UniProtKB/TrEMBL annotation:
It comes from Cordylochernes scorpioides. Signal peptide: none annotated. This is C2H2-type domain-containing protein. Residues 32-59 form the C2H2-type domain. SUPFAM superfamilies: beta-beta-alpha zinc fingers.
Length: 100
């Protein structure tokens, strides 16, 4: 079966990927819409983060002395702190590569 946007003869895994303009929905779950644009989602947390991109609000901040880094997501601040501490907690099980 040919899907628009997928080249004929492309690998089978590509056919399972939704194009960016199509959102997968869960039946029976309410679709929420951004109050600033037409962005639709069924994920309330994702909608809150999305709306912060419109307001410029950055709730989370780095607590490193003298650092002014702020972010919409707590995870981004956690990743940012690795640049301060030089900590690389993730490592490859096959080689010596480590990363933050």
């Amino acid at each position: 079966m040919h899907r628009p946007g997928i080249e004929p003869g492309a690998p089978a895994w590509q056919a399972s990927i939704l194009p960016l303009n199509q959102k997968q929905t869960v039946p029976g779950k309410v679709m929420e819409t951004c109050k600033y644009c037409d962005y639709p989602t069924q994920n309330k947390g994702g909608l809150i983060v999305h709306e912060m991109t419109h307001t410029g609000e950055k709730e989370f901040r780095c607590d490193w002395k003298g650092c002014n880094y702020r972010s919409i997501q707590k995870y981004c601040v956690k990743q940012h702190k690795f640049t301060r501490t030089k900590e690389k907690p993730f490592s490859c099980e096959h080689c010596n590569y480590t990363s933050a």
